[in-house]
Amino acid sequence: ALESIDFKNALAQFQNLVEKMIIQRTKESSGLYTKDDDEIDYEKFYKTTRTLFGSAVKDQDIQAFFRKIMSNPDERPEWTEIFGCFSRESVGISSASKETLVLLVSEKQQIAHSVVKRKDVIKGIVKVPLLHLTVTASQKGMITVFSKKKILFSYFFYFHQDTAWITGCDFLPNLNYVVAVTESTIILWDYKSKESESNGFVIKPMKNCLLCICTVTMADNLAKDTILMGDDKGYVYLLTITSDDFIMKQSKAEKVLKFKVMDSESFDMPKRKLHDDWVGKIKYFPTLKLFGSCSTDSINSFVLDDIKRLEDHLPVKEFSVPKGVNAFTYCGKAKVIVTGG
Known about the structure:
The protein is of the alpha+beta class. 17% of the residues lie in helices and 34% in strands.
């Protein structure tokens, strides 16, 4: 009973602290606030919360709670969020999955295998629903194919002469290859190959730094796949690869580990400058039969159009957002495009 009373008192003080922060933030937004000794900054908020609740709260939850109030005081977070609680569904989560929930999910699946080494990061993750696969690519060159929680195939790409980092990956459904881009090459990995000398191909060199990639999903089941890529100069590339390319365009003069090299100049690769800054993300939407690309460019921030626009000079559908767009997605049910700046 005493603990319950103490907690209620601590909670009342915490909610009072939050109210003061909201008033302070509202005044700051309207330009009516003048700093004084009662100002609540992050350090003061952290110390007060720690004093009230002790070790029951985690640093990341305190930080997230403070950030939410500072960014949008009108939509105040629930007090339970200071303890990392977001949904009643989370009560039944197994002890192995009891971590701070970021999204409202009842359970998280975890892959116990470590697919990247220390000081490496995942740069791309793609689900392949038809084959029940997940593909991940790390910055330093580790590409892994998962089936549910099990690692099926894994390959570490390390080029002695090409130290460029991997910047993105996808899956080619017709050719059944994993595709990834580095800053200067395109990698095509035959992840199921049992032949030690023909695991895949490398297309090089690329003049500009490639930053993102996606597969263009078509209805036909021909032995070819099309990919879109964006670079650091604002260009978007269109590249179609067929099974014949693997036979006709190999370079006999050079090999990179078990990968055969193909000259990028031998490919018909239309490109068009759509942005005046880096292309941060590119995505093809099969239901719309359109592609989207975004950039931190404030003028040509987001483009949504047919891939045919990459081969002609007709105007494209685009709009501007101050400081550009970093991410976007399409919701088929609501029929809306959502962007994040």
